[in-house]
Design goal:
The protein has a six-stranded mixed β-sheet with strand order 2-1-3-6-5-4, sandwiched between helices. Helix 5 crosses helix 6. A hairpin with a 2-residue loop joins strand 5 and strand 6. The protein has one domain: 3-Layer(aba) Sandwich (Molybdenum Cofactor Biosythetic Enzyme, Chain A), CATH 3.40.980.10. By secondary structure, the protein is an alpha/beta fold.
């Protein structure tokens, strides 16, 4: 399995602090999906054109089965991940975002501010996650059954 993980953060991409969210995505997906998965890593600023280019490359050129982003899903003006993702999707899958917000809301009432989305581009599933490393495990783990099922539907022989 080939998985793209994209961290979107102006400060982490500038080296102000280390990316903790991207490695957490990798940890969770290795534990729940495929411990031998090949991860293609991107660390980018919150710039819509760069996000779109990375998503297109990971889906269309690199052939990732899944691309998981972290960061840029809040209400701040620089949070453009959902818009950049939506611009490259073939189909949106609203249940992913709805589930993440519902799961997180019971722990953090401000989780409803998340604008995370998910969908498909060709045969790739793209999922936006929050930027908080703790929220990644909380949000990603409950999605695993749906991720597995979606991958079965997207497989070339499906």
């Amino acid at each position: 399995m080939k998985i793209g993980r994209v961290t979107l953060s102006d400060r982490a991409s500038a080296g102000v602090y280390n990316d903790l969210s991207g490695p957490e995505i990798e940890r969770v997906l290795r534990a729940t999906l495929d411990d031998a998965a090949d991860f293609l890593v991107r660390l980018l600023p919150d710039e819509a054109d760069q996000i779109q280019a990375a998503l297109i490359d990971l889906c269309d050129v690199q052939g990732c089965d899944i691309v998981v982003t972290t960061g840029g899903t809040g209400p701040a003006p620089r949070d453009v991940t959902p818009e950049a993702t939506r611009a490259v999707l073939d189909r949106e899958l609203p249940g992913f975002g709805e589930t993440m917000r519902a799961v997180s809301f019971s722990k953090v009432p401000t989780a409803i501010l998340s604008r995370a989305i998910a969908g498909t581009r060709g045969r790739t599933l793209i999922i936006n996650l929050p930027g908080n490393p703790r929220a990644i495990g909380e949000c990603l783990t409950p999605l695993v059954p749906a991720i597995r099922e979606c991958l079965r539907h997207l497989a070339p022989d499906a």
